[in-house]
Design goal:
By secondary structure, the protein is an alpha/beta fold. The chain is built from eleven helices and eleven strands.
Length: 247
């Protein structure tokens, strides 16, 4: 792989997809923003905005319970708090919640292993995360990672997801307004996409992922994910835990 080519060398704001995107951008960027709108990033935003902290876990088996116990965390799914954003609207400040996720949490852990500063963003906190990412990057490029989903067939290849394109685009657009520098073509197209959508909430609800969750009787989770710039939280991974450092 020609790293300079795929890493979008020469651009200040970059965008890629999934685990491979993390790998190719991590060494080039001072900060990576993980975007998994439905639902990890939205759940994290809601929790940390209330003063909770999130321990991201890349697995949902007995290892998750062991990791939560070792950290003194409540495991997602216990006490009703889970990956569903609507279950976190009343989570108390100070709670440490271990949240397994095959997309957003997995990418966060993978990105952190590279030594790059890691943030988690979505539509709800796009503007605040954009500003924090620029600061965290320390003058180096910022990479935005759209998580995407997985096709329900082995070997479960990546499915680029509209909601993550829009979430990533909103963050890119905000960084450009804040003077973040030159955006790569990939990042520019994502920003253009979000600016072209008249009704983000309706688009999130009507895209494939939104319809899937609504079919699972989770309309409130989809509604929460479709709100733009309603949060002032900026979740940053510090010592393995996502904490709001926007204040």
């Amino acid at each position: 792989m020609k790293e300079a080519t795929y890493a979008q060398d020469g651009y200040d704001i970059r965008l890629e997809w999934g685990a491979e995107g993390v790998d190719v951008l991590a060494g080039e960027c001072g900060a990576l923003v993980i975007v998994d709108v439905l639902s990890f990033s939205t759940a994290v935003d809601i929790a940390v905005a209330r003063g909770a902290r999130i321990l991201p876990l890349p697995f949902r088996d007995e290892r998750a319970a062991a990791a939560a116990k070792a950290a003194g965390a409540v495991l997602g799914g216990e006490r009703s708090w889970s990956l569903r954003p609507s279950t976190l609207l009343d989570i108390p400040a100070g709670t440490l919640l271990a949240l397994p996720s095959p997309n957003g949490a997995t990418l966060s852990v993978r990105a952190a292993a590279t030594g790059t500063r890691v943030l988690v963003g979505c539509l709800r906190n796009a503007r605040f995360v954009a500003g924090q990412a620029l600061t965290a990057a320390g003058g180096r490029p910022v990479g935005v990672i759209a998580a995407g989903e997985r096709w329900p067939a082995d070997p479960r290849p990546l499915r680029p997801a509209v909601e993550d394109l829009l979430g990533a685009g909103a963050i890119v657009a905000a960084m450009r307004v804040l003077g973040g520098g030159k955006a790569s073509p990939e990042a520019t197209v994502a920003a253009s996409a979000v600016l072209a959508v008249d009704d983000l909430a309706a688009t999130i609800a009507e895209c494939s992922s939104g319809r899937e969750l609504i079919g699972w009787e989770r309309p409130r989770d989809v509604e929460l994910a479709g709100d733009l710039d309603v949060s002032t939280a900026a979740p940053v991974l510090v010592d393995g835990v996502l904490t709001d450092v926007s204040e």
